[in-house]
Structures are given as structure tokens and as C-alpha cells.
Specification:
It contains 6 helices and no strands. It is an all-alpha fold. Helix 3 packs antiparallel against helix 4. The longest helix is centred in the middle third of the chain and has 21 residues. It is globular, with a radius of gyration of 16 Å. 15% of the residues are buried. This is Phosphoribosyl-ATP pyrophosphatase.
Length: 108
């Protein structure tokens, strides 16, 4: 099973939970609470990932990275996006200098 396969399946599962019972699904609970709740969880999980990385504990880094990725996928699903949208953008950027790619977006 490829990394893309598991992320694609998870992305589909998350999208299917959008209207599930928040009492029975953590993902549905996040959806029902809205983007602020999802963003808060992403922030918390990123902080935990940073701490795991600072401690140099490889297994904890994997666990916390998994939590960050999960919550980012929830955010994408909340906005009707999926890992495929991110994959397409990564393919577009492949082989382009990060400096050049960022400059091509112009100012915000």
C-alpha cells in the first residue's frame, strides 16, 4: 500500500464523516465545531510535534506528525478539498525552486 493510497482513503473517509453524528465521530465533532476548532487542533498538534522533534524522540515525532496530517486533512475536507488537491499542487511545484515558486505567487 502506497503513502498516496492511505492518504487518499483517509481523505475520502473524512469527507464521508462531514454529516455523521458528532456524538459518535471525532471527525464529525470537529466538522460541527467549525474551522476555529479544527485550526486550534492543528496548532496544538504542531506544538506537540515541535516538542517531540526538540526531544529527538523518533516515535513521538511519527505520532505527532500523524496527528498533524490527520487534522490538516480534516481542514481540507471542511473546505471541500482533499489530499488530491494538495498532491496536484505538489506536482506543479516539483522541480521549481522554492524561492521562484513563492515569487510567482506575487504579493498577498
Amino acid at each position: 500500500m502506497s503513502t498516496h493510497d492511505i492518504l487518499h482513503r483517509l481523505s475520502e473517509t473524512l469527507a464521508s464523516r462531514r454529516h455523521a453524528d458528532p456524538e459518535k465521530s471525532y471527525t464529525a465533532k470537529l466538522f460541527s465545531e467549525g474551522p476555529d476548532s479544527i485550526l486550534k487542533k492543528i496548532g496544538e498538534e504542531c506544538a506537540e510535534l515541535i516538542m517531540a522533534a526538540k526531544d529527538g524522540k523518533r516515535l513521538n515525532i511519527v505520532w505527532e506528525s500523524t496527528d498533524v496530517i490527520y487534522h490538516v486533512l480534516v481542514l481540507l475536507a471542511f473546505y471541500g478539498l482533499s489530499i488530491e488537491d494538495v498532491s496536484q499542487e505538489m506536482r506543479r511545484r516539483e522541480g521549481i525552486s522554492g524561492i521562484d515558486e513563492k515569487a510567482s505567487r506575487g504579493t498577498k
